[in-house]
Every structure is written in structure tokens, then in C-alpha cells.
Here is the input.
Amino acid sequence: MQVQDETAEMRRLSEGVSVMATLQQARKRARQVPSLRGKRFVAELVIPDGSPIAWERTTKTPGHHTLWGDPDVMLGCVVSVSPVEAVH
Here is the structure.
């Protein structure tokens, strides 16, 4: 039964967008996760109260959340785009 629960949870998470709580966490994640290496930018989103975007604190990774909703609505929540590597 536990395998089915884990598979259902993995499927549910895969239907969302993986995000981090802070810019620092997002940059760190982009440098550490093999599938994200080479990605040069991270976007900051602000999800307003009452938004149709659902979000939830997910996985054991500190600061990790998952968003579910219309991609165009999510795009409209982008307030800034920053390089993965901080510019000094």
C-alpha cells in the first residue's frame, strides 16, 4: 500500500511546479540539482491572496514548495528574474 501512496504523491507533485521559498534557496538548488545545472536565471513570483494558484510546502528539502495552476496566471505573478550566479 505504501508504494501506491508514494507513486500517487510523486504523480501529484509532478503535475505542479517546483519552487523554493527564497532567492538564495533557488540559486543553491539550481547549482546542486543535475537537471538544473546550466540554467542561468531564476524567477521570483508573488502569489497574491485569493489567487487561483494552489501551493503547498512539499518534500523534505528545506524551503521547497509546489505550485499548481494555470501557467499563464503563474507567469503573471513573476515580479523579477535574477541570474543564478549573483552579480557582484
